[in-house]
Design goal:
alpha+beta; five-stranded antiparallel β-sheet; 1 helix; 18% helix
Amino acid sequence: MTLYTVRYSARGTGVLRTESVVADEAQTAIAQVKRRLGASRTFQEARVFEDGELRFNVSTDAGGVATAGGGTSPRS
């Protein structure tokens, strides 16, 4: 099991909520984040970190469909 840190935000804002997700693999954590974003009226973006490094960016479009992309270094 791996611990992922998820930081949710609305577009153009700072972090509004942070939570921890424990999952067997990254795709399981990403699926959970996609479900949360798809159902949220507040959050449109999430950054998923593993061991302090950004692994995935997840965002929703105007229709509430969430997509995930690879992350970059959190220091950039």
